[in-house]
Structure formats: structure tokens, C-alpha cells
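Appendix B, Record 12. Input sequence as logged:
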Amino acid sequence: GYLVVDVADGARALDEARQRPEPVHLVITDVIMPGMSGPELARRIQSLHAAAKILFISGYTDQVLSDYEVLRGRLPLIPKPFAPDALLRKVREVLDSADAPAAIPADRQAQRPISPQGLEPQSLR
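Logged structural output:
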């Protein structure tokens, strides 16, 4: 089984990662979220837990996500909607992968981050 820690947003996920002395094996995050993008969250968590593997999820179209590295096949992504068994298979695939795909380095993030509210640009923190 898995120990799952459910948090409401990126800031709370970072707080949880900072307080967790044991390794974080997997982070599942949406690509586009209010306050902080999924790739930024992944980068920050991997700065705390270098071996953490990342699985991105998104319900946005490829056109909206075109600036994000996940569409270039470099990072694991499961599109929404997905069935629970599809998520379990993808989680197992990511956990079993030989290497942890690194999150997007700060200089390779989307040039125009997108917020979920009205798809207006937002700044990354």
C-alpha cells in the first residue's frame, strides 16, 4: 500500500514536504493550479527530496499546455479524466522507472504561466 498525503494546494504541499523527514517517493500534481504551477511545485519539492518522482495530471488541452515540458514527453503526464485503475497503473509505472525524471529547471519553465481562472497569465513564485 501507499501512504497518501492529501493537501489542498502547492503551498501546503511544500509545508508537508519540509516537515517530512522520511523520503517522498512520488508527487502527483496538476500542471496548472492557482498560486503555483505544478512544475514549480515539483521543482521545489525535488529541492527538498531529490529522489521524489513526479506525475503530472491535467484536464487542459495540448494547446493550453504547449509551453510546458510535460508535453514534450520528458515528464510523466496522465490526462483527465482518468479511471482509478489507469491512475494506479501510471503510479506504478512512474515508481518503477529507473530514474526520477527531474522537474523542469527554473529557466525552462513555461514563458507564460497560465492560471486556471480565465486562463490569464500569472507570475511564478
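Helices lie at 10-19, 38-48, 84-96.
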